[in-house]
Every structure is written in structure tokens, then in C-alpha cells.
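The protein record now logged underneath.
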Amino acid sequence: MIDIAITTPALLFPAITILFLAYSNRFLTIATRIREKHEVFNKTHSPIAHKQIISFRRRIRFILAMELFGVLGIISCTVTMGLIFFGLQSQGNSVFAVSIGFIILSLLASICELLLSTKALNIELEDMAGN
């Protein structure tokens, strides 16, 4: 296994910051949509609104997973830097591999949420086409 320098995990910090900005925007957008659909559903009890509610629940779970894995990834990167700083290179390498795994899981959850979001938009389009 190749030893990594202390700067290697530090390179992930800007990327993770940008990811969290995107994740926060997704969360705020879905929160707004849920509030809008809440009013529509209470007035109409539309089956289309009901489908959207189910989609919202799934999407919220994926957004939670995205953010959780992202946080674990950045914590792991920080621990990696500490281990390398204290001369524990082998343990630092292992923790860095774990941090990359968390970031990959975060990105996979992001892809799943994106697919659900697209499906939700198609539900809206089907409703509009039916009218």
C-alpha cells in the first residue's frame, strides 16, 4: 500500500464543502415542495399528491443518507490527517480508505435521490398531460 501525505485527505475538503452546498439546496427545495403539496393534499386529497408524498418520504431518506455519509467522510478525513500527523501512517491509510468509502456512499445516495426526483417530476408531467 502506498503511504499518503497529510495533504491528500485535505484535498477532499473543498469537494465535500461543495457537495454539502448542493445537498442543502436539495433539502431546502424539497422542504418547500412538501409544504406546497401539504396544502394541495389537504384541499383535494388528490391521488397524484399522494404519490408525491410517498416520493418525498423516500427522497428525504436519501438526502439524510447523503448528508450523513458526507459528514462521516469528512470526519474520517480529519481523523486521517491526525493519524498521519502523529506518525501512524498505516492507520491513517486505513481510515482514509474508509473516508473514500463514505464519500462514495454519499454520492450513490445522491444518484438515487436524483432518480427519485426525476420520477416525481414525471408524475407531475403525467398529471398535467391528463388535464
About this structure: The chain has one domain: 7-127. The chain has a mean pLDDT of 86. The helical segments are 7-10, 12-44, 47-85, 89-130. The two ends are 61 Å apart (CA to CA).
